[in-house]
């Protein structure tokens, strides 16, 4: 560790400044950040429908209060918010079905990721959903107002650009699908 480096902050204890049901605000030395309360983390699902009409990604949008607008996202949900020690793959399968109405025959673990490590300690586990079948309309649990979108992969960039033009926010995790097209 060099003098004055962020690693120097480890010599200070982590302080909880405020804790709510889902979020905890913390401080360590001069750093302030937020994380999930009670060991909760998230599962994110990359669901590609391999139908006779081509490859389509299953996306959702919902109103996000911090952004003050609807946001286009990959389906996702909390792991362990109701059941301590919940298996992330089971939570991912449940959330995919609740939010989108698609059941996954198989889930593949793609790894653990951090979306904004400069200010948030939260991580998420990403899963690839395979062998999809439509079993309901989705939309989430009452009060979530989740809208489901089945978008052709070959038209995804244009579809997202059109949503941006309409005022939607776009979650950073969609870079998993847009990334190759951004490299010129």
Describe the structure.
- The structure is a single chain.
- The protein is α+β, with helices and mostly antiparallel strands.
- It has 2 domains: 10-35, no CATH class; 43-179, Nucleoside Triphosphate Pyrophosphohydrolase (Alpha-Beta Complex).
- The protein is built from 3 helices and 11 strands, in the order E-E-E-E-E-E-E-H-E-E-E-H-E-H.
- The chain has helices spanning 88-100, 156-165, 175-182, and strands at 15-19, 23-28, 31-36, 41-51, 54-64, 69-73, 76-79, 102-114, 123-134, 147-152, 169-170.
- The strands form 2 sheets. Strands 4, 5, 6, 7, 8, 9, 10 and 11 form an 8-stranded mixed beta sheet that branches. A 3-stranded antiparallel beta sheet has the order 1-2-3, with no helix packed on it.
- The protein is globular, with a radius of gyration of 18 Å.
- The N and C termini lie far apart (37 Å).
- The model has no long low-confidence stretch (mean pLDDT 90).
Please report the total strand number as a whole number: 11
- Class by alpha and beta content: alpha+beta
**Low-pLDDT ranges:** none
Q: Would you identify the CATH H-level superfamily of the largest domain?
A: Nucleoside Triphosphate Pyrophosphohydrolase
């Amino acid at each position: 560790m060099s003098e004055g480096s962020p690693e120097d902050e480890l010599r200070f204890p982590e302080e909880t400044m405020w804790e709510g049901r889902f979020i905890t605000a913390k401080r360590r030395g001069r750093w302030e950040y937020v994380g999930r309360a009670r060991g909760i983390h998230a599962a994110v699902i990359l669901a590609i429908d391999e139908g006779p009409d081509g490859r389509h990604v299953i996306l959702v949008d919902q109103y996000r209060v911090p952004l003050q607008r609807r946001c286009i996202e990959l389906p996702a949900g909390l792991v362990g918010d109701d059941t301590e020690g919940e298996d992330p793959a089971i939570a991912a399968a449940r959330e995919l079905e609740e939010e989108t109405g698609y059941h996954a025959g198989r889930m593949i673990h793609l790894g653990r990721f951090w979306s904004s490590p400069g200010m948030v300690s939260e991580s998420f586990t990403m899963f690839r959903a395979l062998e999809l079948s439509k079993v309901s309309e989705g939309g989430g649990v009452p009060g979530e107002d989740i809208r489901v979108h089945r978008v052709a992969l070959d038209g995804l960039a244009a579809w997202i650009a059109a949503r941006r033009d309409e005022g939607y926010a776009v979650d950073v995790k969609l870079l998993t699908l847009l990334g190759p097209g951004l490299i010129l």
